[in-house]
Design brief:
Layout (H helix, E strand, L loop, with lengths): L7 E9 L3 H9 L1 H7 L7 E7 L6 E8 L2 E13 L3 E6 L8 E10 L2 E10 L7 H20 L1
Antiparallel strand pairs: 1-7, 2-3, 3-4, 4-5, 5-6, 6-7
Helix pairs in contact: 2-3
């Protein structure tokens, strides 16, 4: 058996002035998720398919100029409103990564901790991925206000 390198682990935290239930549900409701999850300011959302059960899959596709940016995965754990774990890939037929979202209630709402585990071969995408998740969580916060 060959020795594997340790995965790259990104951790992003964000506090929300909303209940854990509201923040959790925003990940699994296609209407809400389509407004923030993998959405960009200049893109046009084309597909939001979410099957929110363990073993269910999601596909979120946004037209970004000439490119159709697809994001897909499978739900591994769903424990409303505290934990969501899913595989994630942005390229078809490529080994997926693992994303864990933990949500803890606080006196002011909740705190979300997102952990993205990636194969070391994606090291060149570490900063871009971290920045992307931070932007998406900011979009989530903005979506919940609106």
């Amino acid at each position: 058996m060959s020795e594997k390198s340790e995965p790259i682990v990104l951790t992003i935290r964000r506090a929300f002035p909303y209940s854990a239930e509201l923040v959790f549900d925003a990940w699994l409701d296609p209407e809400v998720a389509g407004r923030w999850l993998f959405a960009t300011a200049t893109g046009e959302m084309k597909t939001v398919e979410i099957n929110p059960v363990v073993g269910g899959e999601f596909l979120i596709a946004e037209q970004r100029g000439d490119i159709l940016a697809e994001h897909f995965g499978e739900y591994l754990e769903i424990e409303r409103p505290r934990r969501l774990v899913f595989t994630f890939a942005a390229i078809r037929n490529v080994e997926s990564t693992r994303v864990t979202v933990d949500i803890e209630p606080t006196d002011a709402g909740c705190e979300l901790t997102l952990v993205h585990e990636m194969d070391p071969k994606w090291i060149d995408y570490k900063e871009r991925t971290e920045s992307g998740w931070a932007t998406l969580l900011a979009n989530l916060a903005a979506t919940m206000v609106g």
